[in-house]
């Protein structure tokens, strides 16, 4: 008898399953709006020019293949932290931010969850927005957390359910609960709190002693400006919160498969930071020993070179603006050209890579079967998958599905 004869088959990953169905489809009109990766105006994966130049610099310096330290490439981590917190950040200036390189955003979340599970001196309960990125629940659950939800999306308005969100954080979350916050470009809804609402959330976290854990996977992707997209993180820090932060360079530098990220924690002072850093190493060492070097070298070259940095900012803006133009175009075709039943203004107001269209599961099934258009069953579409060549066909397919 095999040792694994009793292993039950697990369910397929809901997002990667969409890609598999797309690949199997032979129709030339097929569109994949499932996966959260940027595509250019031709529907192709996009390697940023600043990344190509950074790689040429690195190549010219003939780097060795030695191991990085456990917490990765220190210069990179320092520059990543600066990008998120801002040069004027008080804990940054004080030298009290503990940080480590991570295996992209997922790895940062996992290190953070594992560190909190071991050292956070209160109950291991995390509140996630409802809905949230599908991987948040297993990351925190596998790290030993009890996972609960706070209200976020209002299906009636296709907007933020801010009153219910506040009520959950004020009345339902016990003191010292960990609260996961999407720093910008909320996935999957594309709905972010306004600056005023962030300020209220910060006040509630303070009053209720909730621990803010930010997931910032899309800095720059929401508005086109990395500093504008860091508003929530910087506001919380300026209000004195000791935040945890997971950063990813997958989307904003297009470094998906290079797995470049950082995890950081605001501590009280440099002495406490040193103790926290030592424990981060103890968490990481048995997980994967040390992170890969190439992607961190690319990101650091861009972050530390004035010319490449400026080029990067304009390329991030270009990606964000192409997505925003697709939102306007899709709204225009549905509303003005096709007079598609329903209200579609949320497509324009939502932010970042995704739009939560409001399409129901039966619509998504019909779109796949009849129109060769693939999206997740929750009605989320990756706006980056749309371009001038396929947007009219997509809008007509949606029109057909909802009539
Ligand atoms: N967090 C959110 C909200 C995401 O959408 C993603 C990617 O889709 C990630 C984290 C992590 O991605 P990665 O591990 O590729 O950086």
Automatic annotation (TrEMBL):
GO biological process: L-aspartate catabolic process
EC number: 2.6.1.1
Alphabetical keyword list: Aminotransferase, Pyridoxal phosphate, Transferase
The Aminotransferase class I/classII large domain, residue ranges: 29-397
Transmembrane annotation, as ranges: none
Cofactor(s) essential for the protein: pyridoxal 5'-phosphate
Record GO cellular component, one term: mitochondrion
CDD domains referenced in this protein's UniProt entry, alphabetically: AAT_like (cd00609)
MF term (GO), any: pyridoxal phosphate binding
Reactions that this protein is recorded to catalyse: L-aspartate + 2-oxoglutarate = oxaloacetate + L-glutamate
A Pfam entry, by short name: Aminotran_1_2
InterPro entries: Aminotransferase_I/II_large, Asp_trans, NHTrfase_class1_PyrdxlP-BS, PyrdxlP-dep_Trfase, PyrdxlP-dep_Trfase_major, PyrdxlP-dep_Trfase_small
Assembly notes: Homodimer.
Family in the record: Belongs to the class-I pyridoxal-phosphate-dependent aminotransferase family.
Note: In eukaryotes there are cytoplasmic, mitochondrial and chloroplastic isozymes.
Identification of the protein by name: Aspartate aminotransferase
Protein's organism: Mycena belliarum
């Amino acid at each position: 008898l095999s040792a694994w004869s009793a292993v039950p088959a697990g369910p397929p990953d809901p997002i990667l399953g969409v890609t598999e169905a797309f690949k199997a489809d032979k129709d030339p009109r097929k569109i994949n709006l499932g996966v959260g990766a940027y595509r250019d105006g031709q529907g192709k994966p996009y390697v940023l020019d600043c990344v190509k130049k950074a790689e040429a610099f690195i190549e010219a310096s003939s780097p060795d293949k030695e191991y990085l330290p456990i917490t990765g490439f220190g210069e990179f981590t320092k520059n990543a932290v600066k990008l998120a917190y801002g040069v004027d950040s008080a804990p940054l200036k004080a030298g009290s931010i503990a940080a480590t390189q991570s295996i992209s955003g997922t790895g940062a979340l996992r290190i953070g969850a594992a560190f909190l599970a071991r050292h956070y001196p209160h109950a291991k309960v995390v509140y996630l927005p409802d809905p949230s990125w599908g991987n948040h629940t297993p990351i925190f659950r596998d790290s030993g957390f009890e996972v609960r939800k706070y209200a976020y999306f209002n299906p009636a308005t296709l907007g933020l359910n801010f009153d219910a969100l506040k009520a959950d954080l004020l009345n339902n979350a016990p003191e010292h609960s960990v609260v996961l916050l999407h720093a910008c470009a909320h996935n999957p809804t594309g709905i972010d709190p306004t600056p005023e609402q962030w300020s209220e959330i910060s006040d509630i976290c303070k009053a209720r002693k909730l621990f803010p854990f930010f997931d910032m996977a899309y800095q720059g992707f929401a508005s086109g400006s990395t500093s504008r997209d860091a508003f929530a993180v910087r506001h919380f820090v300026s209000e004195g919160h000791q935040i945890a932060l997971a950063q990813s360079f997958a989307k904003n530098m297009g470094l998906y498969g290079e797995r470049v990220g950082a995890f950081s924690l605001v501590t009280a002072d440099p002495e406490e930071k040193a103790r926290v850093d030592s424990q981060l190493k103890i968490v990481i060492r048995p997980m994967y020993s040390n992170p890969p070097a190439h992607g961190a070298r690319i990101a650091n070259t861009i972050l530390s070179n004035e010319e490449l940095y400026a080029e990067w900012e304009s390329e991030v803006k270009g990606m964000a603006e192409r997505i925003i133009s697709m939102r306007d175009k899709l709204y225009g075709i549905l509303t003005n050209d096709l007079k598609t039943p329903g209200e579609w203004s949320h497509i324009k107001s939502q932010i970042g890579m995704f739009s939560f269209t409001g399409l129901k599961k039966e619509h998504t099934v019909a779109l796949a079967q009849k129109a060769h258009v693939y999206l997740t069953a929750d009605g989320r579409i990756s706006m980056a998958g749309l371009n001038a060549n396929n947007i009219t066909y997509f809008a007509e397919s949606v029109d057909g599905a909802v009539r």
